[in-house]
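Example record

One chain of 155 residues, shown exactly as stored in the release files.
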Amino acid sequence: MDCLPRKGHHALRKGRSSLPGHIYHVTATTRSRAPRFADHRLAQAACRCFEDAAVLGDARLLTWVLMPDHAHWLVQLGQLRSLPGAIHALKAFSTRNIHRELGGCGSIWSRAYHDHALRRDEDVLTVARYIVANPLRARLVKRIGDYPYWNAIWL
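Predicted structure tokens for this chain:
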């Protein structure tokens, strides 16, 4: 049994590393892609964690958007926390905050996430604009200023 390859998302992460100072575009979905954040109260509770600098330690969110069934984060790692640690913190703190403020229990987020390390030649602002424009592409709003669940450090 031990010589069989591991299956699932965990196996995809094998051999991957996160590098201090690098920037990653991360997409995380809700459990079963349920549109949990269509509920304004849940969305607000999660967003409060994204705005709390203490959640990520020395890593920081450059840009983020919370959609009804997923989130996009542009994360720059510091020296202390790995990418899996940063993503775990975002998911865990937002879940705890939702349960503390609104009651309930259980998972909000799926266990897996997708990440893309930005190469040195990729324009960070272009990726940030792509992230922020998600509500427009999903036709949730006609102007990004009308969508309440996003932020970027460049504002």
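Notes: Helices lie at 9-13, 40-50, 83-102, 124-132, 134-137.
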